[in-house]
Design brief:
There is one protein chain. The chain is an alpha/beta fold and about 300 residues long. It is built from eleven helices and nine strands. The protein has a five-stranded parallel beta sheet. The chain has a four-stranded parallel beta sheet with strand order 2-1-3-4, sandwiched between helices. Helix 6 links the parallel strand 5 and strand 6. Helix 1 crosses helix 11 and helix 5 packs across helix 11. The longest helix has 28 residues. The chain is globular and about 55 Å long. The structure holds phosphoric acid mono(formamide)ester. Phosphoric acid mono(formamide)ester binds next to helix 2.
């Protein structure tokens, strides 16, 4: 079994058996993180360009670490350190990066569809590290991996609470978890729920207590204040009161429910500090698991590129 794509552009483009393959492969890579020498020669001789036009702490360092553990050579560009700030277009950037013959470009961009555009204009493998409010496939994969280490992915009740409108994490998670047979409910203020979100494969719930009732997975999302160009909320205090995940609300979830957050967190807004740091929280485990999942994605995509070249 192999992936049927040489790019990782979104969960929308992959099937449940490919998701299982990535998660199974990540299991075998996770063990490398526990060794004294955390390195294998799997991608020796391959070059990865990490092109991050938007800020990132977790995704960028996780990809860089995954590449190092696989012995790939990495080159890092951020918006401020590239000619993006001088007005270079994405197409020119793509052509110039391509001219250096990388094997992968990992891209985070504020515009939805930027990785898809790059995939149409590049010969190398493109990995979407988050494009606008569209998709963040490796985040959803690492979330699924974190869940699957505790519970089978099928038949779960998943509550995703917060700023659904601006969240690529919500979109990728709804697509992935519904594909794998879970019942996903999204919840947030009406102004932060995109019209037609049900078409992704979830239900909508406006009341957080109802959304959390019996949930196996509680996923809090950050309020993306930097993307809010108008008054979506009366105040952060009001939001925390109505939608924040706190200990009393969490009591409504299943007794073995886990709490997730993709980060970065606004403590005291979408989640209280005691819940974020509590014994049901797997938030730092998500970060740990991101490295193995990104190693799996790079490894499997490299196999696809090699088999295409051989054909
Ligand atoms: N979860 C996530 O994408 O975090 P960063 O923005 O820090 O990469």
């Amino acid at each position: 079994m192999r992936l049927r794509t040489r790019h990782m552009l979104g969960i929308a483009g992959i099937e449940p058996d490919e998701i299982e393959l990535i998660l199974d492969t990540a299991e075998s890579f996770a063990e490398i993180g526990e060794r004294e020498i955390k390195k294998v020669p799997t991608l020796r001789g391959k070059t990865v360009v990490n092109f991050f036009v938007e800020p990132s702490t977790r995704t960028r360092s996780s990809f860089e670490l995954a590449e190092k553990r696989l012995s790939a050579d990495s080159v890092n560009f951020s918006a401020s350190s590239s000619s993006f700030v001088k007005g270079e277009t994405l197409l020119d950037t793509a052509r110039n990066l391509e001219a250096m013959a990388p094997d992968f470009i990992v891209i985070r961009h504020s515009e939805a569809g930027a990785p898809h555009f790059l995939a149409r204009h590049s010969r190398c493998s493109i990995i979407n590290a988050g494009d606008g409010a569209h998709e963040h496939p490796t985040q959803a994969l690492l979330d699924a991996y974190t869940i699957r280490r505790r519970k089978p992915l099928a038949g779960l009740r998943v509550a995703i609470v917060g700023d659904i409108l601006h969240s690529r994490v919500a979109r990728s998670n709804v697509l992935l978890l519904s594909k794998m047979g879970s019942d996903v409910v999204v919840c947030g203020p009406p102004t932060l729920l995109p019209p037609g979100v049900e078409e992704l494969g979830c239900r909508v719930c406006h009341g957080v207590d109802e959304a959390l009732e019996g949930a196996d997975i509680v996923m809090a999302l950050r309020l993306q204040l930097e993307r809010m160009t108008r008054g979506y909320l009366p105040s952060l205090r009001e939001y925390a009161k109505l939608y924040g995940i706190n200990a009393a609300r969490l009591d409504r979830a299943a007794p073995d429910a886990i709490v997730m957050h993709p980060g970065p967190m606004n403590r005291g807004v979408e989640i209280t500090g005691d819940v974020a740091d509590g014994d049901r929280s797997v938030i730092l485990e998500q970060v740990t698991n991101g490295v193995a999942v990104r190693m799996a994605v790079l490894y499997l995509l490299a196999g696809e590129v090699e088999s295409e070249a051989a054909a």
